[in-house]
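Sanity check. The docking grid for iron/sulfur cluster depends on where the pocket ends up, so I'm generating a full predicted complex first rather than guessing from homology. Inputs follow.
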Amino acid sequence: MKANIEKKVEETIRKYKLLSKEDKILVACSGGKDSTTILYILNKLGYGIEALFIDLFIGEHSEKNKKNIRKFCSKLGVKLHEVSVKEFTGYSICYMKSVLNSKGNKMKSCAICGSVKRYILNKYAKKLGKTKLVTGHNLDDEAQNFMMNLLKGRVSMNARLGPKAGVVNDKKFVARVKPLYFCSEKEIKEYSKFMKFPVVYEHCPCSVDAFRRFLKGQLDELEKENPTVKLNIINYFIEKKLKLKNKGVGYCEKCGEPCSDKICSMCRLVKALR
Ligand code: SF4
Ligand code: ZN
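Predicted complex below; grid placement will be based on this.
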C-alpha cells in the first residue's frame, strides 16, 4: 500500500510532466491528510519544496491544523510560510460568509474559501519566486468537482480541472499541479494513518455544501458495486478536456492579478463585504 501510492504519484508526475527537479515548488498545506501526504512524498522524492499554510481562522479546526503542520514541517526540515486570510480580506472565512449572507448573497463557505485560497496561493507563490504550486486534490475531489459542474450546468468551469489546473502559460500565473490526482481519498487516508502523520481526520466544520455531500455519498455508493466509478469519471474528463477551452487570461483592473473577467473574484468578494 505504501509503495503503491508513492508509485502512483511518481507516475502521475512523469506522465503529465507536472514537476521537474529544477522546479521551485510551493506546497499548499492545510494540515489535512492530503496535503500532508503530498508534502511528505515530494520531500522523499527529492523535490525542492517549501510549504505554505493559510490560516482561515476556522476556530479550533484551524488551530489544530496549524499546530500539526508546524510540527510536521519542522520534523521534515521543510521551510513553512504562514499567511493569514485576514491580511487580505480583514475577516475569517466564517465571518465573510455571515456578512455576505446577511446582505442576501448566498455564497457557500467553500466557494468563498476556494476563491480566497486560489488568490493567496498564486500571489504568494509569485512573491516567493516559485515555478510550481502543488495542491492536495485527490481523485474523489476531482470526480466530485467534474460531476458538480456537469449537473449544475457550468461545464466550462471544468476547464480549471485536471492534473495541471487552468491557465499555465502566463507570466502572472504560477502553474498549479495535483500529483495526487489518481489517488483515492480512501487510500490517502489509509497511507496517512499507516505513516502516523499528525493529522486531524474530522471534517472542516464549514463544509456544509449539501449538494456536494449528497454527490459524494452517491459516488461512494456506486463504487461499492463498481470500484472504478470515480476513476472512469476523471478518465472521461481527461479525454474530453482537450476540447474544453479556457476563457483566456486577462488582468484584474483593481489588483492586477490574473483573472478571466474584468475584476477578479477576490476583489469582487472584498467589495461585496463592504
Ligand atoms: Fe475551506 Fe470548505 Fe475546505 Fe473548509 S471545507 S477549508 S471552508 S474549502
Ligand atoms: Zn483583483
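Relevant for the grid: The first helix runs from residue 2 to 15.
Also worth noting: The chain has eleven helices and eight strands.
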